[in-house]
Amino acid sequence: MIKCKEAVARLWSYLDRNLDRVEEQELEAHLGLCRHCCGELEFARQIRGLLRRTAGAVEIPPAARAKLDTFLRELEGSHE
């Protein structure tokens, strides 16, 4: 069984359908047992949807981008 850190690292590839079948099954098995990572998946889906809707329409100020990057790194690090 993969751990949360590995599951979170695979989420974007999973959404992009870039995992091989074994990686996908391992992630889905983990998601079936881990509510936290299911929340991470939903968060990633929402961010992805937001980015699709606003791509090119909104310029993120450098300070806001830095805060977002820090937040995402902290979020990823909190589940190791």
Question: Would you mind describing this structure in some detail?
Answer:
The chain is mainly alpha-helical and 80 residues long. The protein is 76% helix and 0% strand. It contains four helices and no strands. The longest helix has 20 residues. The protein is globular.
Question: What's the short story on this structure?
Answer:
The longest helix has 20 residues, at 35-54.
Return residue spans where pLDDT drops below 50 for at least 5 consecutive residues: none
Distance between the termini: 14 Å
Please bin the fraction of helical residues: over 70%
Number of helices: 4
Shape assignment? globular
Number of strands: 0
Major sheet size, sense and barrel closure: none
The assigned structural class equals mainly alpha
Q: Oligomeric form of this entry?
A: single chain
Radius of gyration: 14 Å
> What is the N-to-C succession of helices and strands?
HHHH
Arithmetic mean of pLDDT:
90
Q: How large a portion of the residues is in β-strands, by DSSP E?
A: under 5%
Topology:
Elements: H1 4-15, H2 21-33, H3 35-54, H4 62-77
Please describe the structure with a list of short key phrases separated by commas or semicolons.
single chain; 80 residues; mainly alpha; 4 helices; 76% helix; 0% strand; globular
